[in-house]
Amino acid sequence: MAAKIFILQIFTLISLLLPVTYSIEFKFPAIFNFGDSNSDTGNLIAAGIESLDPPNGQTYFQKPSGRYSDGRLVIDFLMDAMKLPFLNAYLDSIGMPSFQKGCNFAAAGSTIHQATPTSVCPFSFDIQVNQFLHFKARVVDLLAKGKRLDKYIPAVDYFSKGLYTFDIGQNDLAGAFYSKTIDQVLASIPKILEEFETGLRRLYDEGARNFWIHNTGPLGCLAQNVAKFGTEPSMLDELGCVSGHNQAAKLFNLQLHALCKKLQGDYTDSNITYVDIYTIKYSLIANYSRYGFDQPIMACCGVGGAPLNYNSGISCGQTKVINGTSVTAKACSDSSEYVNWDGIHYTEAANQYVSTQILTGKYSDPPFADKMPFLLDLKF
Question: Active-site residue numbers?
Answer without folding.
Answer: 37, 342, 345
